[in-house]
Backbone:
């Protein structure tokens, strides 16, 4: 479904050039859920942005469903295949567009017909219901906003969903609701997920396999069971798991 | 529907239709605006100004052009509430008719300058690269001249007259709007909601018009309302220098200019139009402040 | 023995278009020389409680309490000038993000030294020595270099340590830490916590640790208050947190995904109206 080979991403020009991602390679199979974990600045979100076509300074090879993409340009077919949910639901919805406007514009752009019925169905699917259709973002809570963002991503009926820390801005009880929703949707539609998170427990819950990133490089590949059991090959991943599990008070 | 339920319907957090949502948003804005007393004063003055301009021929006690040299330079009295000028014309009537000229100037400039600015600024900010460079250097060139001097140059080239004065003011006052719009666009451009729309395949034109403009427009409106005071003063300045409205048109700036030779002995000739300019400028400033509370997208509602 | 901080029936209200909004509704607790955790979700009033104690609630917000005593002395609604002398010297606060709490155009060392001088009135040289000592105390290896650095030149974890150094320099009796590690990565987080822990116990301070992270609080604090909708719904020793009685606390714990316990679906919290309106402490 998604193959990334030897991906380099950088920002800025030579003396101040920052290499955000350094020769990263991984592959995600159809129907799989893949996690990218790491601390801030490790380049995990940047990989998603490069795949989505939101960054143009990259080299290497990105293949989505057999189609090789280049630079920042993406075909119409790509937008129907790949969609993204962003980290901050407060920044990912246009402050002056109502839910109705967001979804109808999206459906229109994706060339869908029967827009009215589809909006109702999408809202039901993400657990909001039609009562939310004409609300503006400021009339929604963080969790509700993220549901709208998920509905927007689902509007195109994509095959691959890129999830950039979809719950890190939310309270834990709301996080549970959103994670359950994402699980349900995946089971229902047979979607492929690539999920970025700094929270190992969330990734273990959501993903089958994951890659640990550090300073732009993928330093470890493991599966969820290995993560839960703390079976890491490298030092860094082991330390990261230990630090996430508990804070040890000094004697 | 009774008063109470209309209000509840408007303030509903779960609007049922597109219309209810829109009206609700407008009503929320109105409530915020209404909470600002001074802004309401400003609005009241401006509504009054519009009414006066609309009904000028019926309100004005006398013909603003009728000269009566026997009655020249009369102080305020029962027959001439605000006195008469050097040609014996009733100052109140001239002020009332002059409000039309003022509104014409303000309205036209407010339509032209922010629109040019919005267009130039958002295109420059959104496109970036050489488009940005070219548009912003042009903006810089305009900004490098003092506004009034540049307007003077334009009027001198085009010939004096109220139409050319307005044109000159509009052409010289757009650069600040362009700067403002560009600055806003630069932050908006990086927002996640723009990235999300891009992922749906939205083209640059759609992003610019549908996503960037609605956010820029509100701050431009606020800025325009605050600038109107300056525009009125500039127009009056041009009138004062004889390059704006031509006699006998009752333009407030020109009226001050006429009164300047008598300012020590017959103060009301210059003071009355000066007072009118002051009040209207102040009203625009108050209105702009109130609008900022309502429209500033950064400080959400409530 | 009088507690370091005694709070009785604390309330914070904000007038809104639709009536008074009560952010904090009758919170009471005593703080000794201990680490007290305050946990809750956004909007539970946990941060507002901290701000109210420090007198940082801005008008039109209103703070009332039956008692708000610092070491036996009432500090409720003191005039700002007296409160300012108290803040920093005897009661201090560390915020979530050091980026917004440090002055960007002043070097880190000068900010610590100035803050210290303001409260103690010592000489410049002494203040400088104290600042260097504090930087060393928060495990900064080359205090001299960091002293002359500007806030943008230090990393997030370093910035938070600088904040802690600054806040602890005048030896306050009570430190309120509002999500001090939420903006930090896990590895840095633990280091900052350890520093905080060590300083607090060495100086016999009282610490109020405000956080949304139940597990962290359970491991770091001695005692925990769980807040919901502006009220304390449960209070218990931190080591017993996992045996919490209140359905809200249990719900919060269950909704967390855990590495050591895989589940098919996460439990979601079913909020009950009763949690908001249960009888409040401190009201007859």
Residues:
């Amino acid at each position: 479904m998604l193959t990334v080979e030897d991906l380099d991403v950088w920002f800025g020009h030579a003396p101040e050039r920052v290499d955000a991602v350094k020769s990263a390679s991984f592959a995600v199979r159809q129907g799989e859920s893949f996690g990218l974990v790491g601390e801030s600045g490790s380049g995990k979100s940047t990989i998603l942005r490069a795949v989505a076509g939101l960054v143009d300074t990259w080299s290497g090879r990105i293949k989505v469903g057999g189609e090789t993409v280049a630079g920042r340009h993406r075909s119409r077919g790509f937008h129907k295949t790949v969609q993204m949910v962003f980290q901050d639901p407060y920044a990912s919805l246009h402050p002056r567009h109502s839910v109705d406007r967001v979804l109808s514009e999206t459906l229109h752009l994706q060339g869908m017909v029967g827009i009215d019925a589809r909006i109702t169905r999408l809202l039901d699917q993400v657990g909001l219901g039609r009562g939310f259709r004409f609300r503006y973002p400021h009339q929604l809570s963080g969790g509700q906003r993220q549901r709208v963002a998920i509905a927007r991503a689902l509007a195109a009926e994509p095959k691959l969903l890129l999830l950039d820390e979809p719950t890190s801005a939310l309270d834990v009880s709301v996080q549970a609701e959103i994670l359950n929703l994402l699980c349900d949707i995946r089971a229902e539609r047979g979607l492929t997920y690539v999920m970025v998170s700094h929270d190992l427990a969330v990734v273990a819950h959501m993903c089958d396999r994951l890659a640990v990133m550090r300073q732009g490089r993928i330093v470890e590949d493991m599966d969820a069971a290995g993560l839960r059991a703390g079976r890491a090959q490298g030092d860094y991943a082991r330390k990261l798991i230990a630090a996430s599990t508990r804070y040890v008070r000094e004697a | 529907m009774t008063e109470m339920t209309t209000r509840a319907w408007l303030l509903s957090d779960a609007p049922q239709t597109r219309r209810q949502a829109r009206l609700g948003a407008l009503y929320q804005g109105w409530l915020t605006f209404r909470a600002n007393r001074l802004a309401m004063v400003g609005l009241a003055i401006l509504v009054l100004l519009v009414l006066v301009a609309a009904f000028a021929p019926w309100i004005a006690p006398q013909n603003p052009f009728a000269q009566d040299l026997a009655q020249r330079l009369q102080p305020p009295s029962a027959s001439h509430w605000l006195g008469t000028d050097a040609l014996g014309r009733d100052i109140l009537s001239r002020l009332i008719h002059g409000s039309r000229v003022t509104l014409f100037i303000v309205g036209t400039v407010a339509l032209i300058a922010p629109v040019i600015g919005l267009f130039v600024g958002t295109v420059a900010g959104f496109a970036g690269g050489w488009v940005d460079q070219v548009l912003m250097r042009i903006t810089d060139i305009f900004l490098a001249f003092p506004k009034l001097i540049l307007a003077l140059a334009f009027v001198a080239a085009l010939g004096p007259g109220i139409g050319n004065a307005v044109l000159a003011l509009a052409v010289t006052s757009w650069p600040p709007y362009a700067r403002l719009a560009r600055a806003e666009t630069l932050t908006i451009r990086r927002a996640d909601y723009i990235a999300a729309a891009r992922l749906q395949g939205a083209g640059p034109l759609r992003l610019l018009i549908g996503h960037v403009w609605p956010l820029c427009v509100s701050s431009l409106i606020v800025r325009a309302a605050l600038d109107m005071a300056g525009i009125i003063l500039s127009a009056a300045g041009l009138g004062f220098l004889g390059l704006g409205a031509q006699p006998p048109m009752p333009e407030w700036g020109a009226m001050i200019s006429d009164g300047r030779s008598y300012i020590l002995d017959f103060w009301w000739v210059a003071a009355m139009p000066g007072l009118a300019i002051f009040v209207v400028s102040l009203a625009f400033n108050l209105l702009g402040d109130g609008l900022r509370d309502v429209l500033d997208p950064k400080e959400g509602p409530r | 023995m009088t507690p370091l901080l005694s709070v009785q029936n604390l309330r914070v209200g904000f007038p809104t278009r639709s009536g008074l909004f009560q952010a904090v509704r009758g919170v009471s607790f005593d703080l000794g020389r201990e680490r007290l955790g305050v946990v809750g979700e956004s909007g539970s009033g946990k941060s507002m409680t901290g701000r109210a104690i420090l007198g940082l609630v801005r008008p039109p917000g209103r703070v009332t309490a039956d008692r708000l005593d610092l070491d036996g002395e009432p500090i409720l609604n003191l005039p700002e000038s007296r409160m300012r002398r108290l803040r920093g010297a005897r009661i201090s606060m560390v915020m979530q993000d050091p980026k917004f709490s440090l002055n960007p155009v002043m070097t880190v060392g000068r900010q610590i030294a100035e803050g210290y001088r303001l409260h103690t009135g010592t000489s410049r040289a002494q203040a400088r020595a104290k600042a260097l000592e504090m930087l060393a105390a928060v495990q900064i290896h080359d205090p001299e270099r960091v002293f002359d650095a500007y806030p943008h030149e230090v990393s997030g974890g370093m910035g938070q340590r600088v904040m802690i150094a600054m806040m602890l320099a005048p030896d306050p009796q009570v430190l309120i830490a509002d999500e001090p590690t939420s903006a930090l990565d896990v590895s840095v987080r633990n280091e900052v916590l350890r520093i905080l822990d060590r300083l607090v116990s060495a100086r016999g301070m009282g610490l109020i640790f405000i956080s949304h992270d139940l597990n962290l609080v359970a491991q770091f604090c001695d005692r925990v208050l769980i807040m919901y909708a502006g009220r304390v719904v449960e209070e218990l020793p931190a080591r017993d947190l996992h045996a919490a009685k209140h359905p809200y606390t249990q719900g919060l714990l269950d909704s967390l995904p855990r590495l050591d316990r895989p589940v098919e679906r996460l439990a979601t919290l079913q909020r009950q109206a009763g949690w908001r309106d249960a009888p409040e402490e401190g009201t007859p």
